Amino acid sequence: MEQLLAAVDLGSNSFRLSIGRIALQDGVKHIYQIDRLKETVRLAAGLNDAKILNDESVQRAIDVLGRFGERLRSFHPDRVRAVATNTFRVARNVSEFLPRAEQALGFPIEVIAGREEARLIYTGVSHTLPASDEKRLVIDIGGGSTEVIIGKGDEPVGAHLRATHFVPETKRVADLMREMQSDKFHLAVVVNEYGGTAGLVTLEDLIEELVGEIVDEFDVEETTVEQLADGGLRVSGRVAVDEVNDLLGANLPTGAWDTVAGLVFDLLGHVPVTGESVTSDGLRLTVDGVNGRRIARVSIVPLAGTTAAGKA
């Protein structure tokens, strides 16, 4: 058992157990994961307005830690590190809960500060990426807090920690904007009816819903529609299909999508790479730029033997 290590992460939403084996390769020690357990606890959901954990959430945590403890029964304490994060930091009854948690797990539990949590997050991510001397940005959105960490190599150089805010996807724009202003936060996680993550929303997103696209000093403003010499267009993926139809006298289809990017996604059936193309209504749509999974630019030109309106 001397060649095994274990780590227990007690998060605000889920608890994780990872077991790794130490191996020596070319004189360098490596840790290879051989087992991993994850259980959803939703501990933060058990906090009331007074920051007291209710009995139900405490019992869920104790039950999970008991199962983890069974898996770790043969481990020496020096080979196990258990850390607890945001909910343990803010719960006012943690002094009553923590001894029960340690007894169930069978090992000491360290309630770490936010900065140490950010350091561990960055270190864990950096070891899964290729070596690089460039700066890296790591964002961890947890059930109780969000960490934004900038680092270089395997070491973080700066971190910013904020509480995570969750909002239902049915929440009205005006109501969410008032909540952001009163509670002084600019970023929220959007959840669906099943409690899953539907996306992120920022204060800037809300403002743009009301007044249109905002270009600030960090944005590179680019032309949304550019006329091409062959009678076609080069457009931003965000341009509406109806606008393209009006400009070209075309009849590109509309449906569950509003934008050119949405049309290309539907026609191709997958996330494209730059240079992929598809045809519709006598037009060839070529992806000129992709940003992550977002289609940034599309060229739309008539097929040979047709006009811009798609007529032979």
List keywords for this structure.
elongated, 34% strand, 16 strands, 312 residues, 8 helices, Nucleotidyltransferase, domain 5, alpha+beta, five-stranded mixed beta sheet, CBS domain Like
Structural class: alpha+beta
Element order: H for helix, E for strand: EEEHEHHEHEEEEHEEHEEHHEEE
Instruction: State the domain count.
Output: 4
CATH topology of the largest domain: Nucleotidyltransferase, domain 5
Strand content: 25-35%
Task: Provide the spatial order of strands within the biggest beta sheet.
Answer: 3-2-1-4-5
Q: Span from first to last CA?
A: 76 Å
Strand segment count: 16
CATH C-level category of the largest domain: Alpha Beta
Query: CATH superfamily assignment of the largest domain?
Result: ATPase, nucleotide binding domain
Low confidence ranges: none
List the helices and strands and how they pair.
Layout: E1 4-10, E2 14-25, E3 28-40, H1 55-71, E4 80-84, H2 86-90, H3 94-105, E5 109-111, H4 114-126, E6 135-141, E7 145-152, E8 155-163, E9 166-168, H5 173-183, E10 187-191, E11 197-202, H6 203-211, E12 225-227, E13 233-236, H7 241-248, H8 260-268, E14 277-280, E15 283-291, E16 294-302
Parallel strand pairs: 1-4, 4-5, 9-10
Antiparallel strand pairs: 1-2, 2-3, 6-7, 7-8, 10-11, 12-13, 13-16, 14-15, 15-16
